[in-house]
Amino acid sequence: MLAAVIISIVLFILLSTGCLFLTVIGLPGNWIMILLAGILQYLDRWLVPEQDGPTFGLWVFVCCILLAILGELLEYLASVLGVKKFGGTRGGMIGSILGGIAGALFGVMIPIPIIGSIIGAIIGTFLGAWVGEAGGSMAPYKDSLVPATGATIGKVLGILSKFPLALIIWFIFNVTLLLR
Question: How many structural domains is the chain composed of?
Answer without folding.
Answer: 1
